[in-house]
Amino acid sequence: MTARRDQTIDMFRGIAILLVVLFHFTARLPAYALNITEGAPLPVFFGWVGVYFFFVISGYCIFMTLERSETVGVFLARRISRIYPAFVAAVLILFVFGLVAYIPSVPEAKFHVIPPNLLDVVMNLFFIGEIGEWVDGSFWSIAVEVKFYLLVALLAGIFHDRSRFTQVFAWLALVMAPVWAFSTFFSYLGSGPVTPQSLLKFLAIAPYLSFFAVGILGRQFEAGTKGTGRLLAANVVVSTIVVWIEAYSFELHDGWLTATICALAYAALVALFLRFVMGKPFPTIPGLSRGIAQIGLLSFSWYLIHENVGISMLTTLDLYMPAHVALLATVIATFLLAICFAALFEWRFRKPVERLAMAVLDWIGQRVRWLAPLRSAPMAQPAAE
Predict the structure, then answer these.
(1) Which of 106, 239, 335, 367 could form a disulfide with 111 if both were Cys (CB 3.0 to 4.6 A apart)?
(2) Are 11 and 296 in contact (CB under 8 A)?
(3) How high is the pLDDT of residue 69?
(4) DSSP single-letter state for residue 225
(5) What does the pLDDT read at residue 157?
(6) How far apart, in whole angstroms, are the C-alpha atoms of residue 137 and residue 91?
C-alpha cells in the first residue's frame, strides 16, 4: 500500500482503539465500582463496537497478507509472529499484576468475578480462556482473531483461487450469522454457561464472520473483483444486525434505543471503510489525522494491556481527584505503557518468531503429506514431459 493508504488503515485502528478504551474506562463498570461518587464522565456505551471494527480492518489486512504469502505456511507464520510474542507477554505480565494490584470484582458486570489461576494462564496461552478465566477480559477477541486465521488458512488450502475463496467465506458468514442469531433465542431458555449461542461463538466464531467478510470483500471490491458488491452489501447488513442483537442482549445496556445507537455507530465506521475501498479521498484534519494514525500503530499493544491496568488505576485515582481528571490521567498512562510494551515485546520478537514458526511449519509439512501446504516454500511442480 502507499504511505497514504497505510496511514488511513492506522487511522481506522486509532479510532477503534480509542472507542474501546473509552468504553472500558467509562461504561464497562458502574460508577460505584470505580469509586466515583459524583461527576462521572459521560459513558461511551457504544465504544465496544470498536472491537468489531477491528475485525473489519483485520479481514482487509489479513487478505492482503494472504495475497502476498507464497504458501499457507508463510501466511500462518506471519500472523503468529504478529500477535503471539506480545500476547504471551501480556498474559504473563497481567497475571502477575493481578496478584499484586487491586482489581475490583464486579459480578453483576461479569468483570473479574474469579481471579485467574495458573491453569487459566496455560489455557490463555493456547487461546482457550473461555474454558476457564481470561487473565484480562479483552483477550477474548484475540482468540477470535486466531480462529479466523486458522479458518483462512484452511479455506486458502482448499480454494487456491482467491475469488472463489472470497465467495465461500462470504457465504459462510451469511449462513452462520443467522444460525447464531436464531440460537440466541434458545440460549435464554437454557441454563448454565454452555448454550447453543456460546458454542457457536467459541467453536465457530459464527457471529463475527460477517465482520471479517466485510473486510475481505472490501479488499476484493477495491481490487475490482467482479461479483463482490452484493456480497459486501449483504455482509454489511448482517454484521450491523449482529451488533444490534449483541447490544440489546447486554445485561447492563438493554433497550431498543441503546441497541440502535450502537448499530448506527458501527454503521458509521463501516461507511468510512467503504468510502476508503471505493477510492474516495479520506477526510483528513492536519495534525489530528496523523496523531490518530500514530495511536493506531500502537493499537494492539494498547488493547492488550489497558483494561485491567486502567481499571485498577481508576479505582485509586477516583478517590483523590475528579473523575474526568482521573480518566484523562489513566488514558495517558496506559498509552505510555503501551509504547514501552510495544518496544519491548510486540516489535522486538516479530522476526525471530516468524523464522521459528516457518521452521516448525516446514518440519510438519515435510512429514505429513496432507499438511504440505504449511511449508514455507511452494512444492516444486513436476517437469513437463
Answers:
(1) 106
(2) yes
(3) 84
(4) -
(5) 87
(6) 11
Residue type, 375: R
- Cβ within 8 Å of residue 331, ≥6 positions away: 21, 22, 25, 310
- Mean pLDDT across the chain, nearest whole number? 89
Name the residue type at position 371.
L
Output the CA torsion sign for 358, 89, 86, 105.
Answer: positive
Domain residue ranges in the chain: 3-374
Asked whether the beta carbons of 235 and 208 are under 8 A apart, the reply is: no
Compute the distance between CA of residue 95 and CA of residue 92 in angstroms, rounded to an integer: 5
126 Cβ neighbours under 8 A, 6+ residues apart: none
**Which residues in the chain come in under a pLDDT of 70?**
1-5, 184-204, 251-254, 281, 378-385
Q: Please state whether 324 falls in left (phi above 0), alpha (psi between -120 and 50) or beta.
A: alpha
Please give the Cα distance from 206 to 242 (Å, whole number). Answer: 10
DSSP assignment string, 59-83: HHHHHHHHHH-SSHHHHHHHHHHHH
What confidence score (pLDDT) does residue 204 get?
Answer: 62
Phi-psi region of 111 (alpha: psi -120 to 50; beta: other; left: phi over 0): beta
Task: In whole angstroms, give the CA distance from residue 156 to residue 169.
Answer: 10
pLDDT of residue 367: 84
DSSP symbols for 149-218: HHHHHHHHHH--SHHHHHHHHHHHHHHHHHHHHHHHHHHTT--SS--HHHHHHHHH-GGGHHHHHHHHHH
CA angle 320, 321, 327 (to 5 degrees): 120
Beta-bridged to residue 106, according to DSSP, are: 111
**Backbone angle region of 127, left / alpha / beta, with phi > 0 → left and psi within -120 to 50 → alpha:** left
